[in-house]
Amino acid sequence: MRSLWIKSPLAIMADAPAGIVLRGGRIAEVLTSGQRPSVAVDEVFDASQHVVLPGLVNTHHHFYQTLTRAHPDAINKKLFDWLRALYPVWSRLTPESLRLATRLALTELLMSGVTTTSDHHYLFPGGLDDAMDIQVEEARNLGLRMTVTRGSMNLSVKDGGLPPDSVVQDEDTILADCERVIGKYHERGEGAMIQIALAPCSPFSVTKSLMCACGALAETHDCRLHTHLAETHDEDDFCTAMFGMRPLDYLEDVGWLNDRTWLAHGIHFSDDDVKRLGRHGVGVCHCPTSNMVLASGQCRTRELEAAGAAVGLGVDGSASNDSSNLMEGVRHALMINRLTYDASVSHLDALRWATQGSARCLGRSDIGEIAVGKQADLALFRLDELRFSGAGDPLAALVLCGAHRADRVMVAGEWRVIDGLPVGIDIAALRAAHGAAAKLFL
């Protein structure tokens, strides 16, 4: 087990001015002022020009949507109209276009400092049966940790749902593939690289029966649950009309109000809803950029955390964010939460949501923090661009001055980004191939 001393960082999100020692893919020592490693190390990395963060953790995304950024049919629309415009476009998704979309999203996330990500893939037009296998392969090739969510939709327009028939599957097909994917890929315990979660898309695209069945499967196989909830007032109205109850009551009715569950968006919760979420240990992924783009509303982050709920961050789909950059999302989270509350919302709050909070959403205690025994997942940023000149507090500068690209990123003790570029990826070739694939969706 080779050891590495990341020495004397410019700043670090821990009490470790002398740096940290990594060994065997974990953080072995956290060095306070004047300390040196307790034993000789194999290698030293001079971090005096770097701000060191725990690797960022992205808890909600839709990789396939990188193919339809700023799509002319969907810009300047609210959620339901945006979805109705794009569902027919997304029905053209193929295995090869999904592979390129996944590779590009993972690369973009990695370059922004993300070391662990989730993706909510719920779209299965004909011929895309191996979507989960494609995503696992791409994550492994790039070396990121990933919670691969086997998403689903089975409530189409003809049954009173929102999506067209061309992108949904029947319940038996969905559940069989959920079991297959869990059995083939789900890793348990500390240091897991690939984990599986079950993720029926939303109340307006899946049946109550499917929600209940996925909840039971997750209990049987010890995996997590994920869905969109309380994103817009339209969803409130749909749940009341379709199920005779509000979204959180529906979540409880199907057996999902528990600590296996984390929710995307979670905007329109009442005071009582917030208390219930905290009491039951449900996590909420705050998606600030997407919420602003679609004018969906503002997540009640302070109240949720005060109630005991985990609050994480997600970039959401690239067609409702138009970026897969979580460091940019950290800045957006700071800004919209200051607008929602006041200026006491700090850069440390936003960074905490993107690290420890997100890790809690994914049910992980081994990532999201720089501490002894945690996984060696790190994002290192330089402050030598013009945007940072004059900055006094390096950690605050990352957020307030708009850092968006890491100089170095490490996952499980291995450098995956060096000098701002992902190891083993031809960025120009990826851009060309993905761009050509995206033209087929116009």
Overview of this structure, please?
The chain has 442 residues and is an alpha/beta fold. The protein folds into two domains: 3-54 and 374-422, Urease, subunit C, domain 1, CATH 2.30.40; 56-361, TIM Barrel. It is 37% helix and 20% strand. The chain has 15 helices and 18 strands. It has helices at residues 79-90, 95-111, 131-142, 171-185, 208-221, 233-243, 247-253, 271-280, 288-293, 301-307, 318-321, 326-340, 347-361, 394-400, 427-438, and strands spanning 3-7, 11-12, 19-23, 26-31, 43-46, 50-54, 56-58, 114-121, 145-152, 194-200, 224-229, 261-265, 283-286, 311-313, 378-382, 408-411, 414-418, 421-422. Strands 7-8-9-10-11-12-13-14 form an eight-stranded parallel sheet. A six-stranded mixed sheet has the order 2-6-15-16-17-18, covered by helices on one side. The chain has a four-stranded mixed sheet with strand order 4-3-1-5, with no helix packed on it. α13 crosses α14 (394-400). It comes from Aestuariivirga litoralis. This is 8-oxoguanine deaminase. One of its GO terms (molecular function) is deaminase activity.
CATH superfamily of the largest domain: Metal-dependent hydrolases
Mean pLDDT: 97
Largest sheet, in brief, is: 8 strands, parallel
Which outline best applies?
Answer: globular
By CATH, the architecture of the largest domain is named: Alpha-Beta Barrel
How many alpha or pi helices? 15
Poorly predicted runs of 5 or more residues: none
Residues in helix, %: 25-40%
| Strand arrangement in the largest pleated sheet | 7-8-9-10-11-12-13-14
Total E-strand runs: 18
Radius of gyration over C-alpha positions, nearest whole angstrom: 21 Å
Percentage of residues in strands: 15-25%
Structural class: alpha/beta
Instruction: Say what the CATH topology of the largest domain is.
Output: TIM Barrel
- Number of structural domains: 2
Can you tell me the CATH class of the largest domain? Alpha Beta
Domain Amidohydrolase-related: 51-415
InterPro entries: Amidohydro-rel, Metal-dep_hydrolase_composite, Metal_Hydrolase, MTA/SAH_deaminase
Organism: Aestuariivirga litoralis
Protein name: 8-oxoguanine deaminase
